[in-house]
Each structure stands twice: as structure tokens, then as C-alpha cells.
Amino acid sequence: MLSQRGINGSLLPNITCIACSPGTRPSTDRSHCEVCPFNNYYNGMIHCDCSNSSHELLKSDVCAPVSSMTNWPNDIKVYNVEYPLVNQVVQSRFLKEHLRSSAYLCKMLHREACQVVANMCVMSMYRDDHVGGPCSLFRDSKRIPNSENEPLPWLYYGEGDAPIVLSRKKITTNYSLERSSWDSSLNLTAKLWSLNGTWLGIKDIHSSFLQLCPGQWSSLNAALRFAAHYKIECLIQPEQLLQSERTEIMELFLRFSSSSEPMLYAIPILNRNFKQGTRFPNKDADATQWQLTRRFFLIDTLSGVPYTTNNENHFTPSVVRYLKSATLRIKVQDGADEGKIYPPLLIVDYGEITEADIVANIPVHVKFEVEYSMENKTIYSMDVWIGVLCAFVVIWTVLQTWNHSHRSGHLAVDVITLFNLCVFACSSLSNTFFGVISAAAIHALICYKGQAVAQIILPPGAMDSYINTYITVAFFLKVIELVHMVWRQIGIDIFLIDWERPRATKSSSQPVSIWRTYFVANEWNEIQVKRKTSLVVQLLLMVFLIKICGLENWTRADPDLNSTLTNEMLHRPQNHTFCFALTVAVYIFIYGLQWIFVTAIYERFIKNGIQEFVDICSLSNISVFILEYENFGYYIHGRSAHGFADTDMQTITNQLRREEEDLVGHRGLLPASDQQTF
């Protein structure tokens, strides 16, 4: 640099040129020395320039030896970000400008640079199929780091370690289902980084932090209630997705206490978009094929910005990647560890939207869900009960078939006998399936809603499918029984026996009137639809209790028994097993009340339609003989105790008065008996 003054500050007679100290260089006007943007050591000396022969200028302040960049070639494939859902490949501007320089600085143990490369790997969906890609730096780091001081972040769990990771019993908190308890909800903590590697801090988060759907704060933050399922789905406009000015990368932790000491447990991430070669192993049902990771993001508006030399100020993304679906899955331990959980698993699935879709403002579908599961032996118990009862079904079916053959007069086993055997088997199996499934569903509903410690969790999706299958089978079996019953009723023979004798005089004949027979036949048609219960009352009361009284809210995946839909229950999905259980329970309850009322009160003190028909038969002097089978039927003895009934009203009134005063014989078939039905 040029110096006009000496060490003591006095002016020199001539301007002197002084060499700058190592690590500095002259300023542009040569008035002072300034620190070099980078220091390069080669030929045994420190240089402020970046030699083209031995070094490569990666950024304005990063000069790297060419020999150290052999694993990071300047290849266009390295900067490509694939978006398979929209069938696009974008040469990312962010990767083009920062990948190689950050990778070099990371090798020089620069912590923030390592975070930048890690964030690039996360935005690339952890793909490691290109030499020099952001994830290649972590290829040999799929392990738990030994120290937090290591500059290389922990991104990958070991390959095939998913079953081991998800079955560890390191979380010591016993969670409770009582709302007033402090451990009735899960507590989450997140570490946040910006894309440039800056650590944004660690903070406690609510469940609304993980959701892109808008909504009330109280309903969105109810997602982490223990043992309560949560599900929210919505359509949001692209402009809402782009409201976030920066993309943040995060790690999720479960916060709990162990011996009064606060603890953090890392929540593994299962990224459904992770691609290994041509496969998507994280979409398989086999957990041994999963590749668990540590980091995720909600929305990425930066990696989709294309690199272009024409317009350096172009920052509009060609594709935006967003969190389309997130499912927090928690498995509860059983046995002696009541209330304890295994490590939660966050399953993420990303969607993609193009610039054209953003301009067209096409809404996108977003979902967030919290699921609980537990080793459930209910399905096994139902299988056992069905198997045991099926043995009794066989015995009962054989007895029914033998009884039917005896009544029908079929002494030998023929085609009709085998057909009836199949029909009776369908009937018994239908009742067995429905009874076992209903009992299991009601048991699950009562136990889940009535527990304080998690001993049983919501029935899994497999149980819903199980119940649907058996109910469908039971329905079709019952249809077969109903068709057979209608066919059998069509063939029933009904005889109306008129005991009236013609009363003739010497001068004229007086035949018996047919109108009494017509009257009895008409009454018979009316009582054919008589039931112990009213179908209209049954349905109206069910609608009243389930809809108006709010019992339908009991079917929501919430451990509390609320008939009112609160804000916290808005996004609690209705459980199909609970819906079935509640419907059956309410139906049986209303049916039982009706049956008791009709049998104990209405028929006894108000009106008994069947008994009235028997009385009409007696007044009409007509008996009814119903022949259901050749050797079996029913008989209503309607022979009048007065010997005749084809008369005027005055005579009938006198007959009833005499019968009331017990001046005539009894109506029964046998002497001194009132038994008229057989």
C-alpha cells in the first residue's frame, strides 16, 4: 500500500510503498490493507488470490483446492431437483450457488456450512443417487452421532433399523386419559434452521405449528390429546402456501420428564417421497425396508427456483413442494406399562404444485392426522368366539333340520332336507356373526370411554374392515333366510271353519251367512302386520337420541363422553366401530323399552290385538286352522259357547251378558278350559 506517514505519524518526504502483512491485501485505492476474503496456502506461502491452476473459486469468499473437490464435480445433474408428481426437473439456483462451496466448508469443519448441505439433502427428499449430490456427504453417516459437537448433522437412521428404533422403551412418562391431568397431552419441541444454516433456536410448539390448514386455535391445538385421534383435511389456495417468506428445516422432539428431569426424545421421520433407485421403500408395509430420517419441512419455495443466466433477479419458483399429508403415529405399550408409549413416528408425504397452477390459483388438498394404536387382541377374541359358537351352530342347525323334516313328513334325507339344512345354517350363522360383532363393538366403546389409564385404545382400522366384512356376510345370509321365510309363508294353508248350522223352518230354508267369514278373514289380514314394537317409534326415537340429544358425539375418537360438540372435538373423526356399537346399543335399548311397555302395560291394560282377534273368532263362531307344514300348524278355537252367532245385535248382547255372568260354558276347546290357541 502507499504510505505518506511514518510510524510516529509524521509526514514522510516521499510516498513509500509498503507490503501488506500476510493474510491481508491492499485496498482498491491502496490507502490501507484489508483482510483477504480467503487465505490459500500453497507453495509454502499464504496467498490472497485464487490460483486457477491449483484452486477453484467456488464463491466470492471461498477458494478451494481442486484436489479436494474431486468428489464434488460441477455437474448439472448434481443441481437438478426432481419433481416426479408434476413430471419436472428443475436446475435449482440455490443448489447451483451454494452446494459445492458449502460442501467444501463443511469438510473444513464449518458447522453452518454442514447445516446448509444437510438442508439441501432434506429438500432433495434424501436422494443419494448422484455423485456430488448434497446427500452424498452423509452416505457414511447413517448412525447416531457420538457427540452434539460434531459438525456433521445427524440425518439418517441406520438402514433396516426402523423396527428397532420404533420399539425402544426409552419414554418413561405414564400418560393419562383424564383431561385434568398434566400428562394427558403430548408435548412437542422443535429445532429450527434457516436454509443458510443459521440455527433459529429450539422452542416448544403446539400442534397447530405442524398444520397448514387454517382453523380455530383451540381446535387445532387439540391434536396432541393422549389416546384421542385427530384428523383435519382442507383445500387451501396456493397464495396461502406462499405466505411463508422463508423455508425452515426442523427436527421434532417429544418432551417428557424422567425422574423430574426434562428430557427430549427425537421423533423419527418416515418420508413417503424418499426414493432409492427406482423404488419408494418408505411406501412399503414392511418396516424393515424403511429409511427413517430426522428432518422435514412444511413448504419449500426455494429449491424450485431455476438457475438462469439471463435474469439474476429471477426468484419465482417453477415448482413448490408442500407438506400434503402428515400423520403422527403413536403406539401405546400394553401389559404392565400402562400409559407408556413407544417412540412416535411422523409420516410425511409431500405434494408439488407448478407455477402455472399457482397462477391459476388451483387449490391443493392438505391433511394432518394423529393416530394411536396398541397391540389389540379383540380380533383374535372374536375369531375364537365365532369358532366356538359355530360348533353350536352345527348342532342347532341339525336339530332344526330334523324338526322341520319331522313336521313336514320327510322321513328320508332328500334334496329338500339338504336345502333346508343350508337355509337354517345361514340363519344361525347370520345371528352368530351379528351377535359376536355387536358385543365386541359395544365392549370396545364402553371400555374406551370409561377408562382413566390407557388399557385399550381405539379399535384399529383392521377391526373396522373386519366388522364390515362380517356384517356384510351376515346381511346376505339373513337375506337368504328372509327369502326362504317369504317363500315358506306363501305356501301356508289357512282354513276358516264355520261352526254355524243352518236354521231352517218347514216353510223355508235359511242358509248360513258368509259375511262372518269375510269379517274374520279381513281381521286376519290386519293382524298379519302386528308387531310388539312400532317401527316408526323405533326410528324416531333413534334419530332423537342420536342426532338431537347428541349421542352421535360419543362415537368420536375422544376419551371423554361428551354429548355436545366442543371446539376441541371438531377434528376428532368418528370411529366406524363406535358408530356401529352405538347404533346397535341404542336400537336394542329402544326396542327393549317398547317391548316392556307393550307387553306389561299396553297389551294388558289398553289393547291386545291378537286376543281381540281370538274374541272375534268366538263371537263369529269361526275357528282358524293354519297349516304351516304337512304335520304341523296352529289352531284358534273359535266355536261359540252359545252354539250360534248368525243372529241380530240384541241376541249377541244377551249372549255376552250371559257369558259375563258365567251362565254358559267356557270358550276353550277342552271342557272347563279357556285355552283357545294351540
Q: Brief description of this entry?
A:
InterPro entries: Meckelin. The protein has helices spanning 93-107, 111-123, 162-165, 217-220, 238-241, 355-360, 378-408, 415-449, 461-490, 515-527, 535-548, 576-606, 609-620, 649-660; strands at residues 2-5, 11-17, 24-26, 33-35, 40-42, 45-47, 55-59, 62-65, 80-83, 88-91, 187-194, 199-205, 230-236, 248-258, 261-266, 269-271, 295-297, 299-300, 319-332, 345-354, 364-374, 493-498, 622-629, 632-636.
Give the SSE layout:
Layout: E1 2-5, E2 11-17, E3 24-26, E4 33-35, E5 40-42, E6 45-47, E7 55-59, E8 62-65, E9 80-83, E10 88-91, H1 93-107, H2 111-123, H3 162-165, E11 187-194, E12 199-205, H4 217-220, E13 230-236, H5 238-241, E14 248-258, E15 261-266, E16 269-271, E17 295-297, E18 299-300, E19 319-332, E20 345-354, H6 355-360, E21 364-374, H7 378-408, H8 415-449, H9 461-490, E22 493-498, H10 515-527, H11 535-548, H12 576-606, H13 609-620, E23 622-629, E24 632-636, H14 649-660
Parallel strand pairs: 16-20, 19-21
Antiparallel strand pairs: 1-2, 3-4, 5-6, 7-8, 9-10, 11-12, 11-14, 13-21, 14-15, 14-17, 18-19, 19-20, 22-23, 23-24
Helix pairs in contact: 1-2, 7-8, 8-9, 8-12, 10-13, 11-12
